[in-house]
Design goal:
alpha+beta; about 200 residues; single chain
Amino acid sequence: MNRIKKLELEELQRIYNNHVIEDFPRNERRPLFSMEKLMKTGKYECFGYCDDGSLLAYAFYFLAESRQYALLDYFAVVPGLRGHGTGSEFLRILKGAVSAKNGVFIEAENPDSAKSEEEATLRRRRIRFYRSNGAALTNAKAQLFGVDYDILYIGLNGTDLSIKQLDHAAENLYREVYRPIYGRFCKLYTEDKSDEN
């Protein structure tokens, strides 16, 4: 039977070494020691989705000090199980497990800045996945180490925020998450969509 599990430090280390380094390119990987430090201070939550002890998927979140919001840092389904609904099932369960009170922000690489049509297609597919599972595109955009991201948001516990509240929450969360590099290697900006609302 599939179940979600909040990971201990040793389990995070094992998943990082056996999966994260395979699933994410080097330039997108947070160093393991950074995750360990954040986890020890209660600012990082890690979950595994398992079936009889076998890992199906994993998700890591950065939690705001206020616990109002979280930023999804990593989300992946193990190879061989992708495209069969495992990710959607896991994300649905995660909504009730993450400690954030109001909602979760998600970074998805912007398709418009892709270097090839194949890469743009993959990025669009990721955004469709999150949107089909309850995430909404916000006005917020981010640039991290030269990579452009669209920011999505999943509200939790019936929390409904205005566009301005979402922009403000995203700005505060990014300043906290990326404190040492904010303004140099990390920029958050908004795209005015007021004429679309």
